[in-house]
Design brief:
Blueprint: E1 5-6, E2 12-14, E3 17-19, E4 28-29, E5 40-41, H1 56-64, H2 69-75, H3 91-94, E6 109-111, E7 122-126
Antiparallel strand pairs: 1-2, 2-3, 4-5, 6-7
Length: about 130
C-alpha cells in the first residue's frame, strides 16, 4: 500500500516526488455523462463494468457469492452478428463459407482480386486490428 496524497491533478504524491499512477490506481475517479453531474470518489468497481486488475480477485470473490451472477452476465453479452454480413450471404458466396453461422462483416472483410467474374472477390476472412 502506497502512503502519500493526491495532487490537484490526480497524481499520487509520495514524499517530494510526483508520479502519475495508472488510471485504475488513481484514488479519485470523475465520471460524467451528458445528463449527470455525478462524482464518484474512491470506487473499487466503476459503474461501466470496468474492474481494475488490482481489484479483480476481490470482484470475482464477491460475485461468486451470488451463484447466478456470472451466468446472467454471460447471457447479457451480445451474440450473433453485430454488423452487416450481406456480402457473405449472397447466394454465390454462401458455398464459400466454411461454417453456416460465421460470416465476415462487410466492413472489414478481405477482398480478393477478381479472377474474371465479379463474384470471385469473396473469401470468408476478416481483417483484425
Amino acid at each position: 500500500v502506497a502512503i502519500g496524497s493526491l495532487s490537484d491533478d490526480g497524481d499520487f504524491r509520495k514524499g517530494n516526488n510526483t508520479t502519475a499512477m495508472p488510471t485504475d490506481e488513481k484514488m479519485t475517479k470523475k465520471l460524467h455523462s451528458e445528463n449527470s453531474e455525478t462524482y464518484y470518489n474512491l470506487l473499487k468497481y466503476l459503474p461501466n463494468g470496468i474492474v481494475s486488475l488490482s481489484h479483480l480477485w476481490d470482484y470475482v470473490q464477491e460475485k461468486c457469492l451470488d451463484e447466478k451472477h456470472f451466468a446472467e452476465e454471460f447471457q447479457a453479452l451480445p451474440s450473433g452478428p453485430q454488423l452487416p454480413t450481406n456480402i457473405a450471404l449472397h447466394p454465390e458466396n454462401r458455398k464459400k463459407n466454411r461454417y453456416k453461422d460465421l460470416y465476415a462483416y462487410d466492413v472489414n472483410r478481405v477482398q480478393l482480386k477478381p479472377l474474371g467474374n465479379d463474384e470471385s472477390d469473396y473469401i470468408n476472412a476478416s481483417f483484425v486490428d
